[in-house]
């Protein structure tokens, strides 16, 4: 086992208060990306 | 009056059926033909496989819901396709065989005006010698019954480790052309966390084995992603996580045979190896179901409908990897020979892989097949349903709704441990799923910012929130349609 994630980073990853705000941020960001639309590719590039 | 027949009640079939029912008037019939009596939220199977959820938490019976919502339901499996009818019936139909109830074994010609083939993949365990769930100490988490078996075996192993016995656990892909590395990735991280929780992590040697040419390929050729303020490759992200958790890895490996506690595999350098284990969970190859199709004179026309999976509006011209483009990928999932047949989700034949094909020195193809996740399955099913709805309501063909995997984002929220305060998740979002090297030439074909990774407790909460949200949606509870695919 090799430590690749620092103690500070691990604290941030597992701190419920920090992660609560991260949860809100991630939820909105993913919603924008995934529900933000999709479409074809052929008409645009041809 | 139109009749829309949906084959399959997985994520794709269920999404299509529910949207059709909601948006079409009751004079039109929506019929679901599926051999499964339950809907299952597949992404949560990994938690059943680690004992953190029960099957009842991720499934519900289809028949009562469909009855309540006015969706006709036949618990049957499709046997053959007849898109032109036959000498007795003019309308197109599928031949279905009932698999349960008083009519078990009975055959019925189910006629349709529109057909949505959402039969998903066949879990082709038989393509790897000796790979069969719950035999040879090998398990699967592809269904909730498989996942339950996996947890019972893993629990037994944990008890033995508590008695001081060291064990070897092998998790990954069970065939040179397997896909769905993401599920195995989630499972190995959840198993690692469970071993920690039970205080036996130091008693287990945990190894990842996969047909990926490098870690983090996920069947998508890997990706360049934003991680905090850094830009890194997905291979680096996964390597960081595996090293941090003490997980060994074997990559470029095509597993070709399973014996009791021994996995045989070939690597890209042409060498043959074996790996011993006390417990293994290997994702099998996916294949089409081998359906046959016939014209009105009963002539075999299978090659007009199927190429393993169903043929749709993709460019299937064989060409070298360097000439692949996003334009090859389908947009409407309509069969080119029969305009009233569609195949969203996993049922359509992809034009080619996404990950660069690789062949071992012995000529064995060893590289991941294209991934087929729930999110694109739901999106493509909804757009197919919307096109059929437009066509019926406007009384003229409409293919206004389009959704290519080359112009669609996907979020893979990979659980890496269960628990409200101890859990963790690796959120990887990719846009687009199929890389577009013309639009994004400097970032491996993907848009940075929309392609990013995050690790932490929030990822677990997000996966758990999606579990509850999508089951709520699938149960068609009030305002279910507001939850996006």
UniProtKB/TrEMBL annotation, chain B:
Domain FAD/NAD(P)-binding: 3-278
One Pfam family linked to the record: Pyr_redox_2
Gene3D superfamilies: 3.50.50.100
InterPro entries, alphabetized: FAD/NAD-bd_sf (IPR036188), FAD/NAD-binding_dom (IPR023753), SQRD (IPR052541)
Membrane-spanning ranges: none
GO molecular function: oxidoreductase activity
PANTHER family linked to this entry: FAD-DEPENDENT PYRIDINE NUCLEOTIDE-DISULPHIDE OXIDOREDUCTASE (PTHR43755:SF1), PTHR43755
UniProt-recorded name of the protein: NAD(P)/FAD-dependent oxidoreductase
Native source species: Maribacter luteus
